[in-house]
Structures are given as structure tokens and as C-alpha cells.
Write a structure and sequence with these properties.
The complex is a heterodimer of chains A (328) and B (285).
Chain A lengths: L1 E5 L6 H10 L3 E6 L13 E5 L5 H8 L4 E4 L12 H20 L4 E5 L26 H19 L3 E6 L1 E3 L9 H10 L3 E5 L5 E6 H14 L5 E4 L2 E4 H11 L4 E5 L1 H18 L7 H8 L7 H7 L6 H14 L4
Parallel strand pairs in A: 1-2, 1-4, 2-3, 4-5, 5-6, 6-10, 7-9, 8-12
Antiparallel strand pairs in A: 9-11
Chain B lengths: L4 E6 L4 H12 L3 E6 L5 H12 L3 E5 L5 H13 L3 E7 L14 H28 L3 E6 L12 H21 L4 E6 L8 H9 L2 H4 L5 H13 L4 E2 L3 H12 L2 H14 L5 H6 L3 H6 L5
Parallel strand pairs in B: 1-2, 1-4, 2-3, 4-5, 5-6, 6-7
Classes of the chains: A alpha/beta (328), B alpha/beta (285).
């Protein structure tokens, strides 16, 4: 089967492209830079130079494809211009949806994010729970608008399923989308790692392989216009760090209070204002990691047969993989 | 478990109404939530029941129709629900030139903002009187203090709410009913408004608040029996300026700000399927 895919050079798209290719599909991967070292290499992966903001390039790549995975997105929390979030995520997604609809793609899976749900309350958030606080980040808002667009196309007749990965970790490309893996790498290199001291804050940790399989399962058994949380275990920072310590005895985790982190974030922002350089992190990012974000994956487990790899096992595999690749 | 009194909130499915529902749930109040059909009200009610352990009743009603207002009242009476707080929050905002608006839009706006509030307050007055001390919170707007172009009808409806609330307050105080009017500035209520708010002129942008910030201030003010509640430091500052500045400067300032106020946003437009309501109808307060 021919399958169109965006985001093949990204953290989730890369292993997804390979998995699809290995199972005998022809993957039409839309990539901005065909010379990129991050392009997945497989005889079944056909590279189509293009951009989701360039409709004709999508048109060319999606021609004849039965399925489409729209994984690409501007997945940052900071941009020089806020416009980027909307141009890449919203306009780009609209282009992909339009082309998929007009060219008769049978099924589409859109990769959203758990950040559209916002912080969780007493119980882990599930797909139908209302968002409790307003959107503050442009990334979250842009992804939410994309979901609305996907649902609109689904109502028009495009079979489109939304998946919401949570905090994804595991072996793979070193990118901004997998901070947990970068953290493990720093630990392995015996570098200091600064972590928030709010030990009881819950997060949801999804193993990359589960997320990739979840995408394929959503394509197979997902219901159109529905969304599925692809997550993992809900763990407090305390639990995460103690598991990490068990695996890497020499890990140098340095607790730092969120308040101090915020002050540094503020200084970073001032630096950005003066120099235009990208901040390492911002106060808004601190808020993000100090809010509870526990998710309930029961819907995906029930309807898609989604599988959750235990965190200890996922971390173990990640470490083994990093060691095998000389921490790169 | 809370007592057996209820707080009735109209327009509870999104924006400020949703924030009121969550805030009152947090404060252990039983809720009667009213909003348009298919607006996600059942999911919200379910979330509140699970997280706050309070009773939540749901009524899906289009309050622009006065028959629906009466139906709501009758159903509440039939279930013998005792109301202690009535929050008239449902409203329709707009930012557009008078000549650009359709008669249908203005009719809907007046019916919802003015008529529904009046009818519901009248119908539930006896119920409130039996459950004193009881409270009525009407959602007005800062637009009721300033004469703003592009907000002629909206501002007019909110001036009515302001006038109505303050007058009624004097009347029903001796019966143990306390009336407050909330006068917020811009709020990130729904998706299109949030997007619009991001592109506005700086003077309105700095005053924009999130519903979850406004709701607790409003409920605190209501329970403290304040006549007028203006949330936010910047909004309060604008109110102070209003008293201090001479008329000529105020006129210049509002004209300048309003002339730069955009009434549509590319992404908001993309989202709205109905073309007339799309770029123009926005829920402001």
C-alpha cells in the first residue's frame, strides 16, 4: 500500500516511516531537505522534496496514496515569531487535509499532542474531559485549532483520526521533542541535570515504540473524528528520578525549585529580547513541567489495542540503546 | 457533601460560564448548568461531579427563545431544586459596524443579553427569595461604561444589564437577595475570541484576562455583596482614568483603540463554518 507521511525527519515520524516501510508499504515521505541526515533510509521509503506550506508539493507526494499520516508540526515552545506556530501547524495542516480530501485518501491519522488538554485535575485526564484552564501557549492553541480542522474535514467525509501522544521518550533522534532522552544522555555522560524539586507532580510518559504502534493501530481501528491519547504510565517526578537512579547509579540529578527556575527563565527571556537568541527555557515552560499532566489511555487500549511498555523497561531499553550508539 | 442549594449558571459550556461552573464546583456548590444543545455540557457536568463531589443538573436550552427560558424554569420547579445563586452569564458579543450586522444578529443579541436575563431573573425571584441569603450575578461588561464604535448594540445591551442590576439591587435587598453586576474587559472566552484577542491593539490586549482568573474574583465579589465587580488591575485602572480624564481625551483614546480593533482573524475564519457568524460574532464578555 502507498502511504503518505509528513514529519519523517522528526522524532515520531522517523521510526513510523521505517516501521511502515518494513511491513511492506511504500512510504511517500514529504521532506523539506532531501539531504538531511535525519532521513529514514529504506528501499520502500520514497523521498518527495517539499513542504506542508507548499500545496503543490503535497499534491505530488500524496498522489495515489491510500493512507496519510500527518505527523509534521512546529513542535517547539518558543519561536522568534509567534506566526510560525500558526503558519506551520494550522495552515500546513489545512493544506494536508485539503489534498488528502481532494485526492481521495481513504484514511488519515493526525498527530496532535496531549498539551491540548492542559493540566490534569484530580483524576488523569481522558479524551472527553473539558480543558480546565485557557490556552496560554501558541503551540497548544495551534494544535487545538488543527484538531478542529481535522474534525471539520471528518464531518465533510474524510476518514480522519486524531492521536494525542503525551510526554514521549525512548531511543531515537535527538530532538526537542524528547527531553527525557536528552536528560538520560546527560546522566550517562556524568553531566549535571537540573530537575524541578516539585517531586509529587505527575507526568505521563509514553514510550516511542508504543506511540509509533499506536499511530498504526489508530489507522487500522480508530474511529473517524475521534481522538486517542497515546500515553504511558502516570508517574511523579520522584518515581521517575528514582527509576533513573536505579538504572544509572552515578546520575547527577540536581533538584531546583520551580521558583528559581522561573527566575532563570525570566532572565533568559530578557536575554532573548536583547540578543534575539533562542532562550534555553522560559517561565511558561517551567509552568508546563510543574503542572500535573496525568492521562488516561483506556480508550486507546480498549479501541485500538494500544500497549503500554512499563516505564522501567522503556528506560532500560533507552539506556541500552544510548550506550550502544556511544551516547549519540 | 454540600447543602441542598443550587447555583444556576447560564451559558455554562464554554468561556466564562465554564469557569464559573468549575469555580462554584470547587467551592462545593451544587450546580444547574444551562447551555446550547451539543455544547459539551454533559462532559463538563461529568467532570465536575467526579472531581468535586457535588450534584450537577444539566439543561440544554437555547435561551434566545423566551419559551425555552420558561421551560427551564418549569423543569427546575418540577424537580423542586432550590436556587441560592443565579448567574446570568449567557450572552452574545460582537465587534462590528452597525451597517455590517444583520437584523437577525442584533435580534439574537438583544434577546439573549437583555430578554433572557430579565425573564430568568423574574421567574426565579420567588425561588431565590425562599432560599435567602441568595445572590444574583449578572454578567455585564466594561463596554457599558464607555461609548464604543463597533459595540453599539452590544454595549447597549450591557448598559441595560448594568442599569437593571443596580436598580434591582435596591429593590430586593430587603428580601435578602443580593444583586451584583460583573463588568469585565476582554476575556479569552472561546477559540475565535482568543485568536482575535491576540491580534488586538495593545491597549485592549494588556487588559485581556482568562476566564479562570475572572471567575474567582466575580464569585468573591458576589459573596461580599458588591454592587459592581470590575476584575483585573488594568481594568480598574481604566475605570479610574475614566473618572479623571476629560471627555475629549477619552473620546480620542476609545476612537483610536476601536479603529485599530480587528474584527476578524484568518485562523478564526478558517474555523467558523457559518459564514455570517464567522468573523463578526464574538463573545466578548
Amino acid at each position: 500500500m502507498k502511504i503518505f507521511l509528513t514529519g519523517a525527519t522528526g522524532y515520531i515520524g522517523y521510526p513510523l516511516a521505517l516501521k511502515l516501510a518494513e511491513t511492506g508499504n511504500i512510504v511517500h515521505a514529504l521532506v523539506r531537505n532531501p539531504q538531511s541526515p535525519r532521513i529514514p533510509q529504506h528501499p520502500n521509503i520514497k523521498i518527495f522534496p517539499g513542504d506542508i506550506n507548499d500545496r503543490p508539493s503535497i499534491s505530488k507526494a500524496i498522489k495515489g496514496c491510500e493512507q496519510a499520516y500527518h505527523v509534521a508540526g512546529f513542535s517547539r515552545l518558543w519561536a522568534k515569531e509567534k506566526k510560525s506556530f500558526y503558519e506551520v501547524n494550522v495552515t500546513g495542516t489545512q493544506h494536508v487535509l485539503k489534498e488528502a480530501f481532494e485526492q481521495g485518501v481513504k484514511k488519515l491519522v493526525y498527530t496532535s499532542s496531549c498539551s491540548v488538554f492542559g493540566p490534569s485535575y484530580k483524576e488523569p485526564t481522558s479524551e472527553k474531559d473539558p480543558r480546565v484552564i485557557s490556552f496560554s501557549s501558541d503551540y497548544d492553541l495551534s494544535k487545538y485549532i488543527c484538531e478542529c480542522l481535522v474534525k471539520e474535514y471528518a464531518h465533510r467525509g474524510l476518514f480522519a483520526v486524531i492521536v494525542n501522544p503525551s510526554r514521549v521518550y525512548g531511543p531515537g533522534l535527538n530532538s526537542k521533542s524528547n527531553p527525557i532522552t536528552s536528560m538520560i544522555m546527560r546522566c550517562l555522560k556524568k553531566q549535571y541535570v537540573f530537575v524541578p524539586s516539585c517531586k509529587s507532580v505527575l507526568g505521563n510518559y509514553a514510550f516511542i515504540e508504543d506511540v509509533v504502534c499506536g499511530h498504526i493501530a489508530a489507522m487500522q481501528s480508530g474511529i473517524s473524528a475521534e481522538r486517542y491519547i497515546l500515553g504511558g504510565e502516570n508517574l511523579s517526578y520522584h518515581e521517575v528520578f528514582s527509576i533513573l537512579h536505579k538504572e544509572i547509579k552515578y546520575a547527577k540529578l540536581f533538584m531546583i525549585s520551580p521558583f528559581i527556575m522561573k527566575i532563570f527563565g525570566g532572565i533568559q527571556l530578557i536575554k532573548t529580547l536583547l540578543t534575539g537568541m533562542e532562550p534555553a527555557y522560559t517561565p511558561a515552560m517551567v509552568d508546563r513541567i510543574t503542572n500535573n499532566t496525568a492521562y488516561n489511555c483506556q480508550k486507546a487500549i480498549r479501541q485500538l489495542g494500544y500497549h503500554i511498555t512499563p516505564f522501567t523497561e522503556g528506560i532500560h531499553q533507552t539506556i541500552e540503546n544510548l550506550k550502544k550508539n556511544n551516547y549519540a | 457533601m454540600p447543602d441542598n442549594y443550587y447555583t444556576l449558571i447560564t451559558g455554562a459550556s464554554e468561556g466564562l460560564g465554564k469557569a464559573f461552573a468549575l469555580e462554584c464546583g470547587k467551592r462545593n456548590m451544587n450546580l444547574i448548568l444551562v447551555a446550547l444543545p451539543d455544547s459539551g455540557l454533559y462532559e463538563l457536568a461529568d467532570f465536575i461531579r467526579r472531581n468535586f463531589n457535588v450534584l450537577v443538573e444539566v439543561f440544554e436550552k437555547d435561551l434566545t427563545d423566551s419559551t425555552s427560558c420558561r421551560e427551564l424554569f418549569q423543569e427546575v420547579q418540577r424537580q423542586k431544586l432550590r436556587i441560592r445563586i443565579l448567574i446570568n452569564n449567557a450572552g452574545l458579543g460582537s465587534t462590528l459596524l452597525f451597517g455590517e450586522g444583520s437584523t437577525e444578529l442584533f435580534e439574537k443579541q438583544i434577546k439573549l443579553n437583555v430578554l433572557a436575563t430579565t425573564i430568568l431573573t423574574r421567574l426565579f425571584l420567588d425561588n431565590l427569595e425562599r432560599n435567602t441569603p441568595s445572590y444574583i450575578l449578572n454578567v455585564g461588561s466594561m463596554a457599558s461604561f464607555f461609548f464604543l464604535p463597533k459595540k453599539q448594540v452590544y454595549g447597549g445591551t450591557k448598559s441595560y444589564i448594568h442599569f437593571f442590576s443596580k436598580s434591582l439591587r435596591k429593590e430586593v435587598k430587603r428580601d435578602g437577595i443580593h444583586v451584583s453586576v460583573l463588568c469585565p474587559g476582554g476575556i479569552n472566552t472561546n477559540l475565535s475570541v482568543t485568536l482575535l484577542n491576540k491580534t488586538g491593539p495593545w491597549m485592549s490586549k494588556i487588559s485581556i484576562m482568562n476566564p479562570e482568573e475572572v471567575a474567582p474574583i466575580a464569585i468573591n465579589g458576589l459573596l461580599k455583596r458588591k454592587a459592581v465587580i470590575v476584575p483585573g488591575i488594568i481594568n480598574k485602572f481604566f475605570m479610574m482614568l475614566d473618572k479623571l480624564l476629560p471627555d475629549i481625551i477619552k473620546t480620542r483614546l476609545t476612537d483610536y483603540t476601536m479603529s485599530r480593533l480587528k474584527t476578524d482573524n484568518h485562523y478564526a475564519q478558517m474555523l467558523n463554518r457559518q459564514s455570517i457568524e464567522a468573523a463578526t460574532i464574538t463573545k466578548v464578555a
